[in-house]
# Entry
Amino acid sequence: MRAYAIGGFGRSLMGSEIIIKARNLTKKYDDLLAVSSIDFEVFRGECCGFLGPNGAGKTTTIKMIQCVMPLTSGSLTVSGLDVSQKQREIKKMIGVAPQEDNLDPDFSVMHNLLVYARYFDIPKSEAVKRSDELLKFFQLEEKRNVIIDQLSAGMKRRLILARALINEPQILLLDEPTTGLDPQARHLVWDRIRNLEKRGVTIILTTHYMDEAAELCDRTLIMDNGKIIEEGNPVELIRKHVGEDVLEVEYDDGVMKDLKEKLPEALFEVVGDRIRVFTAQPHGAFESFIRDFPTKGATIRNANLEDVFLKLTGRQLRE
Amino acid sequence: MKTSDSVAKRFNLPQLTYRVRKVWQRNWDVFMKTYKVNFFPPLLEPILYLIALGFGLGPLLKSVDGRPYINFIAPSLIAISMMNSSFFECTYGSFVRMYYQKTFDAIVATPVSIEEVIAGELVWGATRSLISSSIVLGVVAAFGLVTSPLFLLIPLVSFFSGLMFASIAMCFTSLAPNIDFFNYPAFLLITPMFLLSGTFFPLPDFAQIIAKAFLPLTHVVTLTRGLISGNLESSMIISVVWIAAVTPVFFILSINLMKRKLIK
# Structure
């Protein structure tokens, strides 16, 4: 997995320049505290993921960074510029791919890019050149003159990403970039995002998919109820919170007793009729348990970011 | 104290730059993509009215101010087209762009501000008024109903009247919880104005005072009537002043109301 390979490299990048900095950042709507006095930094060139259940405050944070939502209190700077003062300067260096499709339905693929380029004062000839390159980069060249209504969800999503890059941004904000896409489209989008990161674009993304965060992010910030409850490299977070492996077995009072005896330091989680067992011990601990106590339906798998996420944010549904 | 603060906030001067034009240009591009559909109604509607009311009903009526009835309604049709095109552009049209297409969200992610987006929409509404009324003016001229070279001033009237109706419309858009809401201003404001602003019958004196106070279309009709017939009246000055005073108030108010709606 790439997250492994990049682990150490990602850390070393973090010593570098801070591009976004939030201090006591707070957003209140009427009675609802959407973001509650959070502090964070984003470093130039990294891919930073905001994770959290619905209503955690991810999109609100993104909207404050892109200068379309005023802060209630605290401070937020992008490239040293205050988001409350220098909106235009900041918006010039940011590319935004929102959650919802807001392409212009009356225009063709190409015209969507050209109209968007106009808002950034990009001269026509330059806009055409960049649009052609972007359509190629996102494999949309054949759809150049197609009207938006005739595109699939995956194509629309790619076009939104292409549009977000028309101003050659230093920072790319991606709000759930692959929600609703099929696996093929998802992998293509991931590949393009990694490619952009290699070119030095700072990427901030929100996602509900833990595999996506593990795949793409150098660093993740886990939010819940408007607060940042944990942050770090995905691999390190997994190691820290859930260890290397997870054992899953069918629930049985006898098995539970055996487990508690053999693995006294482990954490047990019972969900439905399954028991999940987490341990800080290295590989092999679960294998020897199964050897000693052959158990029905036992599986050992790698611990993942989803385990961390559920452990930290709980299993309650958020609506 | 608090109320007067919030009232003052509704009249903050918007900070506008050349970027307003880019928003206008986007709407123009869409309009030109579907121009055939867009040119048809303003062309057909006045012809139908002139035939039905002018040639059909007109001969049954006494002349108005010594002229045939068809000459009385011709300038009204021009004024009505200004009102309808700009008002519906900045209610239904703007609402679709804001709510269904999320076009405003897409634009404010660029260096264009929300104030400029709304101002661009308003100027576009005024442009729709200019386009529609020019077509209606052409139809009226083709029927031989333009009798003064002063008609050349009508585009000017059209743009500013259009801006006024667009701004009033945008205030309703800022209050609209859903698109069906626009039935209220359409039936409670636009339809009465269409019929009662000295458009299809001359208003008696007392009614004229009320109409001039509350129905902006009355002033627009006064101007178009004077300009295509060449019969200038002193009341036209009042109408110019009325439009010039009301337009900036609603222009600024509507931008602030939309900002309040969109920026949480």
In short: Residues 17-262 of chain B form one domain. The mean pLDDT of chain B is 95. Chain B has one domain: 17-262.
